[in-house]
Amino acid sequence: MTGFTKEQEEIPQTWVTSAVVAPHTDGAHHFGKRYRQQQQTVPKVYICATMWHETPEEMRTLLESLFRCDSERALRYKGSNLDAAADFEVHVIFDDALVSSGCRRDHSILNEFAENFLKVFSTLSRRDATVYDASGRSEATPYGQRQKLRFPHGHTLTLHLKDKNKIRNKKRWSQVMYMCYILDHRVHSSNHDNTYILAVDGDVSFQPASMLHLVSNMESNPDLGGICGRIQPMGKGPIVWFQIIEYAISHWLYKTTESMVGNVFCLPGCFSLYRARALMNDGVKDTFVTQTKSGAEYLIRDQGEDRWLTSLILKQGFGTGYCADALASTHAPEHLPEFYRQRRRWTPSSFYSNLLYIKDVKPLLQRNCFGIWFLIYHIIITLCGAFTPGFIFLVVLQGVLVANKAVVFP
User: What is the pLDDT of residues 103-136, one digit of tens each?
Assistant: First the structure.
């Protein structure tokens, strides 16, 4: 606990300290004025991580990043360096985190992955592992359970534990869950412009400065609906070496070009910042939560959710950007089967999403999302992507596997 009352915990620590140090009338007047000014200027970031069955090492990678953000913000407030500060809270959406206890059909307990997450958090916070034991500390919710943890410097982490028997699994529905929770229940309508959602994966590593770079770019351009950082793969082996080169080309060439001459067409969900006002638009959130009714919709919405969300933001007239200074790292597949499963999802959904951009070119041009030269560039990239050796190999191999019933689609 921080030692403050509930009302004081809603105010950053330096503001409370200022009131205590200068309790006189003039000091109280200046404190109130300072509080009102900073309440309007300090942005609020909701860091939302989607997790499934990550390893303890991958969980530790993400949690170390969050602990760094907690420490960095505390240091900024102690030094009164608020110019680049951003308040934040963390929400972790954990897919398939509960199992039946056996004694009662309506009672569930944490599975090994959720328990590993709590152990890693306890280790990093230098507390005993039994402090965050699930027994008696979980709050029952319609989707499963919820636990609230606290970082050493007072920031909170809400762990949303999903029960697959009560709510849909997969990443998009976790995104839908935190969007609806934050935008409908946590954000006031007057603060949409100053409130952001930072979407991260459960194995991402980033520095606080990277998050602040994204926030700074969004603050300087109110027309931006979303912005992404530069992603680097982590891991060992030739499969990872290939992905390092691929990611470098994707970010240094493709995303840089898109950001300069138009808008970025895909904000990757592993490290992207979204403006609350853009997501609150009827054509974004309300469309993003719709269910799939066909194979084509499943390909776009459930296997290419990041590209689809980006396209919804662009169609509402918001811009999307790329910030090379905001660096993040993610664990990449190290073995061929895992790499193949990943690309089996990415490649068809990316190609189909590119075709939809070309199909919906008229409203995008009317909203100044890009110009005619960028459209020509995009068509060339799409056609070239359809005839790359890797794409042809995936199509042929998947056709052989399906024909011989050697694989079952997830």
Answer: 555 567 889 999 999 999 989 987 533 344 433 3
Residues with Cβ within 8 Å of 13's Cβ and at least 6 positions away in sequence, in order, are 2, 4, 74, 77, 154
Half-sphere exposure of 59 toward its Cβ, with a 13 Å CA cutoff?
22
Rounded Cα distance, 243 and 240, in Å: 5
* 61-80 residue pLDDT tens: 999 999 999 888 765 655 44
Helix 305-315 to helix 171-181 angle (10° resolution) is 40
**Cβ proximity of 151 and 121 under 8 Å:** no
Sign of CA dihedral 336, 381, 356, 230: positive
CB 251 within 8 A of CB 271: no
Q: How do beta strands 204-206 and 319-331 pair?
A: antiparallel
Helix (H) or strand (E) holding 205: strand 204-206
Structural contact between residues 218 and 225, judged by C-beta atoms closer than 8 angstroms: no
Q: Give the integer Cα–Cα distance in Å for 69 and 209.
A: 9
Burial track 69-84 (b if 16+ CB lie within 10 A, e otherwise): bbebbbebbeeeebee
Q: How far apart are CA 303 and CA 326, in angstroms?
A: 25
Residue 78 tokens, joined? 């102690």
**If you compute the radius of gyration of the chain from its CA atoms, what whole number of angstroms results?**
22
